[in-house]
Amino acid sequence: MSGKAFAVAGAVIIIAGSAAIGYALTRKAPGGMSDAQAGAMASAVTRLDGDIKALGDVIHARAVSLAEPAAIRSAIGTDVATVDDLVTRGDFVPQKGERLELGQIDKPASRIEVLLPRGTARASHDGVVGSYVELAGDQLLITEIVPVAPKYDPERYAGFLGVTRSLDLGPALRPLLDAGITGKLTLGNRSVPIGVMPPGAVTHDQPLSSQKDAKLTVAEPPAQAGMPLPILVGGIGAAVIGLLFLVIGAMGKRAADQTRAFQAMATQPTTPPKTTGIGSAQTQLSQHHPIAATGAASGTPTPVEAASGPQIVPSNLGPGSMIGRWEVVRRLGSGGMADVYLAQARGDGGFEKLVAVKVMHGHLARNQRAVDHFLDEARLAARIHHPNVVTIQDLGKIGNDYIIVMEYVEGVDLERLLLSARAGQRQVPLPVALGILCRICDGLDAAHRATAPDGTPLGIIHRDVKSANVLVSRQGSVKVVDFGIAKAAKQVHYTVAGETKGTPAMMAPEQRVGEQVDVRADVYSVAAVGYELVTGQGVNLDLAALAHLGVENWPHLPLPSSLRAGLPPELDEILLHAMAFERERRPADCAVLGTLCEAVMKHHQLSASDKDIARWVDGELRQLSPAFVGATTDFGKAPSA
After folding, report:
1. What is the DSSP string of 96-121?
2. C-beta atoms surrounding 406 within 10 Å
3. Catalytic residue numbers, as ranges
């Protein structure tokens, strides 16, 4: 190759390399939250909702129990000194971190008097019965005001009792800061900052399902220089190669010029030679022949966006509004991935049917991984046909919004029922506890055995079995819900190797460290739920929290029979073996675990019909605060939850 050719090639390569470097240095990554940040936000909302609900249930139970004794009722209509006697005798003493309030209302005078704490001129909530959540710095103050029926002179006086406890927001909001998310938590007209929100930032609101006037507002990360490393390295390499070509070309041209000059001096004739027209013409052509130019590439045209259909605006979805052909009755709740509404389908002849409609958050619809995750949940659950699994009735897209239509379960999740029983120091009746456990096993076994239309096993594994994902209806039916992070052999969305999804407190060790899982991971989690059912004790089997205890004696829980008198000792081995550290030691699947539990029920003549379970549910619902009672379904999860 001649020196001139090297020079031309070098120039072209340098131009191309410079373009690549410029693209890499100026390329902007799209704004918006990453999957990890969306997961952190969803986790924070879920934890806040769960913490508020759990503490609220405990405070409600505490307030109701304090308001019942005759000594407290007798104090209404008396004076501060009488209440002081109650405190002295130990009848009305606050626990650590708790604020108690006792007051009376003089009906004829419409006057409120606070008997405790002394010096308070007026009750914090004017003695109005209800549940209250307030922001106070970095704490949430949760208060329950309950009525106290006066023992004497009820025509003149009404009594009220309040219990207040604080909830530290730090643990729930810390993951947001760790994920680089800034924003604020707003409750009513007060807010607590999360980091420092950039001025003028585009924000995204995520409401809390536990409080209608509470929301988490976060700043959407702005577009940043992406600087793709392969393109940058390639551009630098090309520029270096181009520079070398230029140097080689320049050196070659210089050497050629010196050679021609030397030859000209050695062979130059004394008289110039005759020139010919042909020679002159060739010289003229070589000097002025234009170099053929290549047209600039126009690039790939931007695809035309499909015409957008009607948009679903969550703020407009009040009672009577429509989601496709479904009329909204009320909003049930919200999670990291979707909002859920109670809706009804209308048909000819006055036909009406209640359903739960899950509407994916609009900002996630732009994230293909999130969309695949959302659609996978519906596709997988729709292939499971069993009375102990919530039925998926429809899946579709309205405009640019994705929806899942599900069976509506009139009842409450098992977690709230267990919290209620625990707060009131009530045990779940053993037949009911084992009956619920067997029904969970049946539903999950149906999921594990589900097949595609051609009969191919789908290989579904739930991966997030916990009491919150089990619904118990008022009629006593038990249904497993939320296949949002389920794993299947055939699905569009896949979990990245080493990625952990699920609830650490109920998660099998192999799942916690990101290894491949099979149905025995669900067996482990079902056994953990069973332990809570029969003992009344909560469990936390997070491997990260228990690693210092080692594998021996895993799961480091007391024998169930040691926590509850009269518990069949066979359950000790069944449940603890099902929670074995090594998956090989666990029952092969949920069908085997269910059969073992059924054998215990048969041997001890225990049985639980749907009516038995319904009676227990009704009893616990009567103990729950009205704010926490209602029809529920799964609220969805963010892609990386």
Report:
1. TTEEEEEEEEETTTTEEEEEESTT-S
2. 23
3. 464
